[in-house]
Structure formats: C-alpha cells, structure tokens
TrEMBL record:
Signal peptide: 1-19
The protein's name in its UniProt record: Serine hydrolase
Alphabetically ordered keywords of this record: Hydrolase, Signal
MF terms (GO), sorted A to Z: beta-lactamase activity
PANTHER family attached to this UniProt entry: BETA-LACTAMASE (PTHR35333), SLR0121 PROTEIN (PTHR35333:SF4)
Catalytic activity entry: a beta-lactam + H2O = a substituted beta-amino acid
Length: 304
C-alpha cells in the first residue's frame, strides 16, 4: 500500500510539473514574433519576459551569439565589482595615454595626458558606446578574465568577454569582442534592475548609466519617449543586437534580440537587422500595451 501511495504521489507531481512550463510560454506573442522572422536572411535569437505575469517567449534564446557592444554591460559589472572592493574609486581621476587609442571616438580623440574621471569614461562607454573608453574600463576591471569570473560566480555561464582575454582567442575569432545568449543578456539587465549585481547601490548606478542611451533609433524608437527604459545595443557587419528593459504602464518587461550570419551587411537604417529590432520592439509594445495609440512621429526616421 505504501508503494502504491508513493507511486501515485510521484505521478501527480510529474503531471503538475509537466503542465507548468506551457503556462509560462506566451503562445500568442510567440506566433507574432515568429511571423516577423519569416523572411529574415540570417539567424535570430529572441528572449522576452514579462515581469508582471512571468510569461516568456524564447526563440533560439539559449543559442550563442556575438554581443558586439552589449558586452559593455558585463564590463561595467566587472568595473563596479572592483569599485565595491575598494580597488578603484568611481570618481577617481585618470590620465589618458595615446597607447590606449583604439578608434576616434570621444575618448580616443583626447590628447595624450588629458585628465578625465572614471565615472565619465563609464558614462561614455554605456551612453555613446565609446570603444576606446570601453577597452580602458575592461583593463581597469582586471581584464576579460576577471569579468568572466564575476559572470560565472553570478550565474551567467554563457556570457563571456573574448577580446584581449587569454585563452579565448578561438572564441574571439568566432564571436568577436564577446558572446552571450538572448536569455542571459536579458536576465543580466534584469539582475541589475533588481539590485542584485554587486550591491543595491552599485546596481542602481549601473542602471542609471544604462538609462542614458544615445543610440535610440532602433528598438527605443518604437517606445514612447516618456517611458523609462534601460538599453544597450550592438552592431558588427553580420550582427545587430539590442537588450531593453521597459517600464511599461501595465507591467515591466525585458527583451533581447540578437542576429548573426546576416546576409545584409549594410550600415543604412534599412538594414534587415536594424529593421528587425524596430519590428520586434513595436510588436512587444503594442502587445503589452494594447490600448496605447502612440506611434513614432511621421518623418522621425529622416533624422537617421
């Protein structure tokens, strides 16, 4: 009799467990997103989570993709870990050297010997995606190895810095500066939003930095300008990517879209990857906020 009771309890537990995952998958939203991907020439990964309902959509969400400039979120985390440990000061003065030059962005255009505070370099890394400043921050954080160790211990097992990181040369050849999955990048941004990265105060400052996005012509262009968002995007020849946390009126949601192996390598606004980022963002906004009548002002795209 005891064995029969245990068997029945096990069977009931299995049935309940098997019913739960489907309840969390937003089938209607998944259909809409799959339709948007139908004619895309390349590989796409999408992860969406509505934090109010807990429902998700995962399309190739655990597949590895290039991060491009989204890697600057983990770099910021590694840097704030050093600050939290007292090894750096957020407002400390730095001295720019020509040896740091990577490209002619804002930081890379500074004269040798120019003084600049660390918090300004971090702001430029996240806001305008300054590459020279980002590589400088990566080095100050202890390099890719230190950042990857923080990611691993924080539960992010797929997201990694590849560039200038010993032992990851093969990964760099395949994925570039960094690699991630849509699910992990979206959950990393959520981790910061929820105050779990490094410490509550560090998370708050990092989140503020991610809320000052200069590159707002992709997914952000499909969200009303009065809605608070945090975002980081990236682009290389065959990949376009964006991770966005949206403080929508009827519930916060987070999503990440990443492409790779794109046939369209153009750098115009009409690039298939850029267009997909806008399409996905528009679908999500109107799905989660169905009563919203807002749409981008006609002619907005001319500025880009």
């Amino acid at each position: 009799m005891r064995l029969i009771v245990l068997y029945l309890l096990f069977t009931l537990h299995t049935l309940i467990a098997n019913c739960q995952p489907s309840a969390r998958n937003d089938v209607a939203l998944e259909r809409k997103l799959m339709a948007a991907l139908a004619n895309f020439r390349g590989d796409v990964g999408i992860y969406v989570r509505n934090l109010r309902t807990g429902k998700t959509v995962a399309i190739n969400a655990d597949t590895l993709f290039p991060t491009a400039s989204m890697i600057k979120i983990p770099i910021q985390c590694g840097l704030f870990d050093k600050i939290h440990k007292g090894e750096l000061a957020y407002d400390q003065e730095l001295t720019y050297k020509d040896s740091l030059h990577y490209d002619d962005g804002i930081v890379g255009s500074l004269k040798d010997g120019t003084k600049i505070s660390l918090n300004k370099v971090v702001m430029l890394m996240e806001t305008v995606s300054d590459n020279t400043g980002s590589l400088w921050c990566q080095a100050l954080a202890g390099g890719g190895t230190a950042i990857n160790n923080w990611l691993e211990t924080s539960g992010f097992h797929q997201t990694r810095v590849n560039s200038r990181t010993p032992g990851r040369e093969g990964n760099r050849t395949q994925y570039g500066w960094g690699q991630t999955t849509p699910r992990e990048m979206a959950e990393l941004l959520t981790y910061i939003r929820q105050g779990k990265a490094i410490s509550p105060d560090a998370s708050e400052e990092m989140y503020r930095n991610l809320g000052r996005q200069f590159w707002d012509n992709d997914g952000l262009s499909q969200i009303p300008p009065d809605i608070k968002t945090a975002c980081k995007n990236g682009a290389v020849n065959q990949s376009r990517s964006e991770v966005v946390f949206v403080h929508a009126p009827h519930g916060e949601y987070v999503y990440c879209v990443i492409t790779k192996n794109q046939k369209d390598e153009s750098w115009e606004r009409t690039n298939e990857g850029y267009s997909l980022l806008r399409t996905v963002s528009s679908i999500l906004w109107h799905y989660f906020e169905p009563k919203s009548s807002w749409k981008p002002v006609e002619g907005y795209e001319k500025w880009w």
